[in-house]
Amino acid sequence: MGSTHYMGLLAANQPWNLLLFMAVPVILAETIAVSELAILFRRPVSPVVAAVNRYAGLVAGFYFLGVLVYLTKHAVVPLTSTGGWRGWADVVAVGFYLLGIVPLFGMSLLETRAVGAGWDDERRLKVHASLVGLFLVVAHIAMIAGMLDPAVAGWDPTHVMDDGSAMEGMTH
């Protein structure tokens, strides 16, 4: 059984990659999601819950921006330039994982008021909650595709050269 680069990244350098690339972003996102529910359903909002939500929303985007830059440089560019992708499931897993930057950094931009500075609290809350939902969708697509054996999705590991690149003329 083979694995996607997404799963390989999480399995390598244990426990650090799992913590840095999965645990930190997911814990921040789950903290935002749970505190967002408390904010949506409990009025008046507890200042502690509001502060936790704001801090996690601020940190998550900037943290994940670092992850995006690091993985683009050390994984996406090398895999793309050498033809090292393990089929469509591999691309979907890594691509959707990295798409998490859109909602997470969007939340950070909301928290810094770079976006929505003139909006009322209700509009900001709706956009923030929508971004939380969007992150959960892209993260789950990444996880599902990442757990798929690339061979089941049509990738043929026999057409890979020793350096991990695809053989000339092979498309998967």
Key traits:
elongated, 172 residues, disordered C terminus, 6 helices, mainly alpha
* Helix/strand structural class: mainly alpha
Apparent shape: elongated
Give the number of DSSP strands.
0
Mean pLDDT: 90
Low-confidence stretches: 167-172
Structurally, the number of domains stands at 1
Question: Any overview of this molecule?
Answer:
There is one protein chain. The protein is an all-alpha fold and 172 residues long. It has one domain. 70% of the residues lie in helices and 0% in strands. It is built from six helices and no strands. The protein has helices at 5-11, 16-41, 47-82, 87-99, 101-111, 121-147. Helix 2 (16-41) packs antiparallel against helix 6 and helix 4 runs antiparallel to helix 6. The longest helix has 36 residues, at 47-82. It is elongated, with a radius of gyration of 19 Å. It starts with a helix and ends in a 25-residue tail after the last helix.
